[in-house]
Design a protein that fits this description.
The protein is an alpha/beta fold. 27% of the residues lie in helices and 26% in strands. It has five helices and eight strands, in the order βαβααββαβαβββ. The two termini are 17 Å apart.
């Protein structure tokens, strides 16, 4: 049985984008890449919303083969190319992509079925709209929140949008990084 794990960068005031939809406030470095990369290797399936999937699919398949590819590009690109992917998208309905399942309807039922299959876990990278859909049904088992030391000040996309089911969480671990980002790892208490 798979667990559903959310990886999300967020501002201190709870936003995943700025008012213009940008994410330039996100601070990443090799320390964060290594920490997240160690955790990512556990997952055997990745889940994205359409926008994030299109960004990821435009970059990661060829990232390991580029001249001067970084350690992170090689490791994450290799992982991306071997895992199955799930995309929540109404506009991609009926499209066929290699190693990719496109879910356009019956999200709750289809994700529950994927969670029941053998495997380690499904990891969600970013994808705020997809995360909101999954939280609405209470399907996320763990939250890995990379809290960036910045206040966006409103107007962006909030991590929590009042559609999620109520859930009690317990803090499993926290990790501070040298650039001021703090990773808070929560899992459902019940």
């Amino acid at each position: 049985m798979r667990r559903l794990v959310l990886f999300m960068h967020v501002s201190l005031d709870g936003f995943v984008t700025d008012p213009n939809g940008g994410m330039s406030f996100i601070k990443v470095n090799d320390e964060i890449f290594d920490y997240a990369g160690d955790r990512t290797q556990v997952a055997d399936m990745a889940l994205y919303g359409r926008v994030t999937y299109e960004m990821m699919d435009a970059y990661w398949p060829s990232a390991p083969d580029k001249p001067n590819a970084s350690k992170h590009d090689i490791e994450h690109g290799t992982w991306y190319n071997k895992v199955d992917k799930v995309v929540l998208s109404k506009s991609m309905k009926g499209q066929q992509k290699p190693n990719t399942i496109i879910i356009s309807e019956e999200v709750e039922h289809r994700i529950k079925a994927l969670k029941q299959q053998a495997g380690s876990e499904i990891i969600i990278f970013g994808s705020p709209s997809a995360a909101h859909s999954l939280m609405q049904y209470g399907l996320i088992d763990e939250f890995w929140l990379f809290v960036n030391p910045v206040l966006v000040g409103g107007g962006g996309i909030p991590l929590f949008n009042n559609t999620q089911q109520a859930a009690e969480l317990k803090l499993v671990k926290s990790k501070s990084f040298t650039n001021g980002v703090v990773c808070l790892h929560y899992e459902k208490a019940n």
